[in-house]
């Protein structure tokens, strides 16, 4: 029996009405703030990229890539808000918006994961990574991420199957929630990146804290710790609830959960988590802030002081 027939006596109208209002309240400020903040982030990291400082170019490329994915999510929100409330005769108009939405989500997941891995390798193996961490290779990794997420979006074209009426991000076909589609998405799209990021972040923080009494650059390393912690917090807050809700909805659509009240609550949780995961495009600003602060701290630490400049001028004059 399909999920549609099993749910005929279980109404989700109250949930949908509540979410229609809540999405309007959340998405409008998210769109405005996300658009402004991510454009500023792209401009800021482009400045570091143009100055050709080798220590900051790789990270700047990753951060610009993350901001572009966030910008893509921001631009999809108005269409998501409008199309999710309209019955359409064809799935073609939905497909592009759904692709943009999920490509931006998983593009952010993979980019944050690679940023965490790159930072861990730079901390653990600084001499080895210095030869491998070139802007060209970083740009190649970012291009690979784009290829992966667009390739992974292929199942979106069959989200709605063959139905007469549907709305975007709703009424997805039974095949969409099949184990062969769901588990690869859940494992490779979220669980594996989360494990990698948690390991790399915890190890990086542990290494930096262990160096506290043996380094003169504790101010820079403390800034690095804040950057790592902010990235991990944003990742978990943004993506863990929505993927947990995906799993619960998978149980509903495959008949493991059949009680109406439970299905209504899971539907509400799913839509709530997706709604608030969109705020990730604004939360990433905390990562941008700490990275730029770290850059500036390092630049100031390595900039000659006025006393050193006076001594250099004196030596040149005497020479």
TrEMBL record:
Gene Ontology biological process terms in this record: bone resorption; negative regulation of osteoclast differentiation; phospholipase C-activating G protein-coupled receptor signaling pathway; positive regulation of ERK1 and ERK2 cascade; positive regulation of Rho protein signal transduction
GO molecular function, one term: cannabinoid receptor activity
Membrane topology category: Multi-pass membrane protein
Keyword Hydrolase listed: no
Top-level taxon in the UniProt lineage: Eukaryota
Classification via Pfam families: 7tm_1
Keyword Cell membrane carried by entry: yes
GO cellular component: plasma membrane
Primary location class: membrane
UniProt-listed InterPro entries: GPCR_Rhodpsn, GPCR_Rhodpsn_7TM
Entry's transmembrane regions: 22-41, 62-83, 95-117, 138-157, 177-202, 223-248, 268-291
Domain G-protein coupled receptors family 1 profile: 37-288
Protein's cellular compartments: Cell membrane
Alphabetical UniProt keywords: Cell membrane, G-protein coupled receptor, Glycoprotein, Membrane, Receptor, Transducer, Transmembrane, Transmembrane helix
Family: Belongs to the G-protein coupled receptor 1 family.
Name assigned to this protein: G protein-coupled receptor 55
């Amino acid at each position: 029996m399909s999920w549609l027939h099993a749910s005929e006596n279980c109404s989700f109208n109250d949930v949908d009405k509540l979410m229609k209002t809540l999405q309007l309240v959340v998405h409008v400020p998210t769109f405005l703030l996300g658009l402004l903040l991510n454009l500023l982030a792209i401009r800021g990291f482009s400045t570091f990229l143009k100055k050709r400082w080798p220590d900051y170019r790789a990270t700047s490329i990753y951060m610009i890539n993350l901001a572009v994915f966030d910008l893509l999510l921001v631009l999809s929100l108005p269409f998501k808000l409008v199309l999710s409330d309209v019955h359409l005769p064809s799935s073609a108009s939905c497909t592009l918006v759904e692709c943009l939405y999920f490509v931006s989500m998983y593009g952010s997941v993979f980019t944050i994961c690679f940023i965490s891995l790159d930072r861990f390798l730079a901390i653990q193996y600084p001499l080895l990574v210095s030869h491998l961490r070139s802007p060209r290779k970083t740009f190649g990794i970012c291009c690979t991420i784009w290829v992966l997420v667009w390739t992974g979006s292929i199942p979106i074209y069959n989200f709605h199957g063959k139905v007469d009426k549907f709305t975007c991000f709703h009424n997805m076909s039974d095949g969409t929630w099949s184990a062969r589609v769901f588990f690869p998405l859940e494992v490779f799209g979220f669980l594996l990146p989360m494990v990698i990021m948690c390991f790399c972040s915890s190890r990086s923080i542990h290494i930096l804290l262990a160096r506290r009494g043996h380094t003169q650059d504790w101010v820079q390393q403390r800034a690095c710790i804040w950057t790592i912690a902010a990235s991990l917090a944003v990742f978990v807050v943004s993506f863990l609830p929505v993927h947990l809700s995906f799993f619960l909805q998978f149980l509903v659509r495959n008949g493991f959960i059949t009680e109406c009240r439970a299905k209504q609550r899971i539907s509400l949780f799913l839509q709530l988590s997706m709604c608030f995961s969109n705020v990730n495009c604004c939360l990433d600003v905390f990562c941008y802030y700490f990275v730029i602060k770290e850059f500036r701290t390092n630049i100031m630490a390595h900039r000659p002081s006025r006393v050193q400049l006076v001594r250099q001028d004196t030596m040149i004059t005497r020479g």
